[in-house]
Each structure stands twice: as C-alpha cells, then as structure tokens.
Write a structure and sequence with these properties.
The chain is α/β, with parallel strands linked by helices. The protein has helices at residues 17-26, 36-41, 68-77, 79-87, 97-105, 210-218, 281-293, 297-304; strands at 4-10, 29-35, 51-53, 92-95, 119-120, 141-142, 157-160, 168-175, 196-201, 205-208, 222-226, 239-243, 249-252.
C-alpha cells in the first residue's frame, strides 16, 4: 500500500492545521501544509496530492463573515485546481471554518445530482484533470452529477449564526445517515447514545432552501447529523455535515481531527480497555477516506464498524 500525500491548506487565522495534519498522519497519509498564498501563485501544486483538508480556525480573522475572505480568494485563484482534484477522485475534508469556506467557495454542495440513477461517476469531468500517481485506480459507485463548472457556483447553502446567538464549545453527539454517499462517513457504525465529536463555533446553523434540502436528502448528501438532543445551533434537519454528489467533498461543523486519540475524550479515564480497543470516531473518519483511495473501503468497515459504546452516566 503506497503512502498518500495529504494537502493541508492554511492561511492567516487558521489554527487547526496542526490537528488536521496529525489526523491525516494517524490515518496513514503524509500531510504537508501549504499557505493559500503559495497555492495562488502556483495552483498546480494541488495536483500532486491524493487528499486535501481545509482546516478550522478564523481565517483572515473571519472579517466580513466567517470564511468569506478565504473563500473569495479560493474562488478567484484556485477553484479550477480544486474542482479538477475532485473530478479525478481526491477526497476533501472541511471541518468548521473549512466548511464555512467550502460553501462560499463553490465546493459544496457541488454540482447538481440526480437522485434516480446510480452509475459510476466520471473521473474525467474536468478535461485537464490529472490523477496523482500515488492513487490506485479503482471505481466507486456514486450518484451521477453535472460536470464541475469552470467558474465557482453561487452558494446555495449557508452556515448562519447559532440560534442561541453565542459561541458554543462542547462535545456533541452525532449520527450518520444510512444512505449517505460520503466516503468519509459511510459504513461507520455508531453507538446510539455516545458517538461524539467536539464542536466549537458561533456560526454553524445549516440553512438552505426547500428544493436544495430535498435534493441533499434524496441524493445521500447528508453525511452527518446532530443527535436530536444535541442540535444546539438549530441547523435545518439537524444537519452537521454534507458532501458533494460524488461523496468526496465533506464539510462539517464538528471537529473530527480533535478526536483521533482516546485521551482526547472528556472522560477517557473512566473507559475500559475494551471500550478504547477500537478507533475513535474522528480517526475512523480519516481512515475511511484513506481506505477508499486504497480500494479497501469494504474491508476497513468490516473490521472497524463495531459500535463504540461509552457510559454517559457520570
């Protein structure tokens, strides 16, 4: 199995790039952080990476709006390179501020999908896309979708101010829809009462129009939901994360990169050795994407889909 190179795009104000790099490394990839300014000067640098991450933080101070400035720069300078990366099969993860950036940069929710068909996606949707040598050739079943446009599309979803109008920092119980196409989360089996990820944001309330919402639901583009009792920001349909129609681009408000070790769990010292004998949810998400690229998705899920059952009573 060849090691996969992972690009972590960073910029002034980003503060979760180290955690994201560590998560990629823990999943078996080789991360490299590159400043957005450097990528803007040479967008072809994107072509050598098999995985891409947009970290969380407060890019450019979140001036104007959360993620707005970084998204505008990406739309103008490197969107074609990122769209080509997706077209050739590159998984991209965008936690928190990365999600806010992705929806404004035209990466999510992506091209229009068809909920009635289920064919093999076309990796040559963008004619000049080049497949990195480190990626094994394998096909994945995905909902057919329109080719990525040459120019970034206008946003059709938004991440608005939390319904409580305050920054919220807490561990959040989440659920994974059974029909999701997201290569980062599909197939992961979660315990019903205690599958958690840390959340920390003030603008994470997912909102969209009724037609877009219907398409996302029918096409399996909902990748992660808040548990019923933990939808603290008031997101529509408790949506915590979505993916594009191919399932490759994953944006979410919680931080999986902050939960790749059991010692990061809020009450890890009370867990038994057996409970800590499986991968954390955060690490499983990153391993899912790496296994997908190595054509080992099915075998990874088969070995790691046992529920992580934790005692929540303190």
């Amino acid at each position: 199995m060849k090691s996969l190179n992972a690009l972590v795009i960073t910029a002034p104000g980003i503060n979760c790039d180290l955690e994201l790099s560590q998560a990629f490394a823990a999943a078996g990839a080789q991360p490299e952080s590159i400043l957005l300014s450097r990528l803007m000067r040479n967008p072809s640098l994107v072509d050598k990476f098999a995985l891409i991450g947009l970290p969380g933080g407060f890019s450019y101070g979140d001036d104007i709006a959360a993620g707005r400035i970084m998204a505008a720069l990406m739309r103008r300078e490197i969107y074609p390179a990122l769209a080509a990366a997706v077209a050739r099969g590159t998984p991209i993860i965008c936690p928190c501020n990365g999600f806010q950036i992705a929806v404004q940069a035209g990466l999510l929710p992506g091209p229009t999908a068809s909920p009635t068909l289920n064919l093999v996606s076309n990796p040559a949707a963008i004619s000049d896309a080049k497949k990195p040598a480190s990626i094994n050739t394998c096909t994945t079943s995905a909902t057919p979708f329109s080719a990525w446009p040459s120019l970034a599309a206008s946003p059709t979803v938004a991440l608005d101010t939390n319904i409580g109008e305050r920054f919220h920092d807490a561990w959040t119980c989440v659920e994974i829809p059974s029909n999701t196409k997201c290569v980062w989360t599909r197939g992961l089996c979660l315990s019903q009462d205690c599958d958690m990820l840390p959340s920390a944001h003030g603008e994470g309330r997912f909102m969209t129009d009724a037609k877009t919402l219907e398409t996302l639901e029918k096409c399996g583009q909902i990748a992660l939901r808040y548990a019923t009792h933990d939808n603290f920001n008031g997101s529509t349909n408790a949506i915590a994360g979505i993916c594009d129609p191919s399932g490759l681009v994953f944006g979410l408000m919680p931080h999986p990169e902050r939960f790749t070790r059991w010692t990061q769990h809020p009450w890890w010292t009370r867990l038994t050795t057996h409970q800590r004998g499986v991968d954390t949810l955060g690490l499983s998400i990153f391993k899912n994407a790496v296994a997908h690229l190595n054509c080992g998705f099915v075998s990874y899920v088969a070995k790691n889909n046992q529920p992580t059952r934790l005692h929540t009573t303190l």
